[in-house]
């Protein structure tokens, strides 16, 4: 067993489970219903934010039984650290956004910089309406734009460093089948 494997297994074993797979699945079902009712007839473009939004988008899309298109953007602020820094654009969406209803899908709304920046970027590109979804919202008073909220939120979490369902700890455990908080963080 490599050193990383052993260390990361220990991180998982010692973590606190905040939401189980079943609880996340219920939240996904609820989100899918809300999205369908809100934009199901609007030919939306789903914009998955890589890397964190991958698992959420992957589990959400099969729950949406209406015509939609998918694209992705990649931007990163944490780069494997547990505190955010400068927002770095890595990949811009390739689809023309002009006149589109866009739904941005991400794993977490923490301080809110990432979703807010992407919303603004989509508006600048001419999107008619930009909706935002985060599987989890972290509860604290450090929001970068206090008025900014996601339109669709799956679950609220305490102010801990989280992994699972797309969220990583040092690049690992995006695959964890639940939402976990790292011990001591
Ligand atoms: O609300 P904020 O404080 O801006 O943080 C939320 C963002 O942080 C994570 O991305 P990260 O920069 O870690 O990149 P990743 O998606 O590749 O993990 C997460 O996927 C969100 O996009
Ligand atoms: N993995 C992970 N990414 C984040 N980005 C912002 N907050 C978090 C968090 O708690 N966990």
TrEMBL record:
It catalyses: IMP + diphosphate = hypoxanthine + 5-phospho-alpha-D-ribose 1-diphosphate; GMP + diphosphate = guanine + 5-phospho-alpha-D-ribose 1-diphosphate. Its EC number is 2.4.2.8. The keyword Methyltransferase does not apply. It is an enzyme of class 2 (transferase). One of its GO terms (biological process) is hypoxanthine metabolic process. Residues 18-143 form the Phosphoribosyltransferase domain. Signal peptide: none annotated. One of its GO terms (cellular component) is cytosol. The keyword Transferase applies. InterPro entries: HGPRT, PRTase-like, PRTase_dom. GO terms for molecular function: hypoxanthine phosphoribosyltransferase activity; magnesium ion binding. Keywords: Glycosyltransferase, Transferase. NCBIfam families: PRK09162.1 (NF006605). This is Hypoxanthine-guanine phosphoribosyltransferase. It comes from Vreelandella halophila. The lineage of its organism: Bacteria, Pseudomonadati, Pseudomonadota, Gammaproteobacteria, Oceanospirillales.
């Amino acid at each position: 067993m490599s050193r990383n494997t052993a260390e990361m297994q220990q991180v998982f074993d010692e973590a606190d489970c905040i939401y189980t797979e079943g609880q996340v699945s219920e939240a996904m079902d609820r989100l899918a219903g809300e999205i369908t009712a809100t934009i199901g007839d609007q030919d939306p473009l789903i914009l998955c934010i890589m890397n964190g939004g991958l698992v959420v988008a992957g589990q959400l899309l099969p729950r949406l039984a209406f015509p939609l298109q998918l694209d992705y953007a990649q931007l990163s602020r944490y780069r494997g650290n547990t505190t955010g820094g400068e927002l770095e654009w890595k990949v811009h969406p390739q689809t023309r956004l002009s006149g589109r209803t866009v739904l941005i899908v991400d794993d977490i709304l923490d301080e809110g910089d990432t979703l807010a920046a992407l919303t603004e970027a989509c508006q600048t590109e001419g999107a008619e309406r930009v909706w935002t979804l985060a599987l989890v919202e972290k509860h604290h008073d450090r929001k970068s734009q206090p008025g900014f909220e996601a339109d669709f939120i799956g679950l609220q979490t305490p102010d801990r460093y989280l992994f699972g369902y797309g969220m990583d700890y040092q690049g690992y455990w995006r695959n964890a089948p639940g939402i976990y908080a790292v011990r001591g963080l």
